[in-house]
Amino acid sequence: QVQLVESGGGLVQAGGSLRLSCAASGRTFNSYVMGWFRQAPGKEREFVAAITWSGGRTYYVDSVKGRFTISRDNAKNTVYLQMSSLKPEDTAVYYCGASLTRRYSGNYYSSLDAYDYWGQGTQVTVSS
Q1: Which residues of the chain have pLDDT under 50?
Q2: Rounded to whole angstroms, how far apart are CA atoms 26 and 48?
Q3: For a tag site, which of 9, 19, 73, 80 has the least CB within 10 Å?
Q4: Strand pairing report for 122-127 and 10-13
């Protein structure tokens, strides 16, 4: 089993920055991709960003490109989501997911069903 714990959420003003962390533990050696998703009240959970453990290839949803950066520290089994220029529409619960499936297309990792494990989520609130 893989356990994922998100942290770093909180309240921030529009235009501010926040860094989320996702610490992975357990049998993490089989995971291939780590992803960040978010879910706002009344909305479906949506893809934000993903990164491969081995090569560090990254994928982003268009709405966060240039503002968010996903990264990973393999030694610490931790992935990060650096969020800058935050907007009120970024307000959501942010979830970290781990995928054990290897695919050639990055689009695959924008889907919820690509991920095998999920964290509990961390709340990000951006005030206007």
Answers
A1: none
A2: 24
A3: 73
A4: parallel
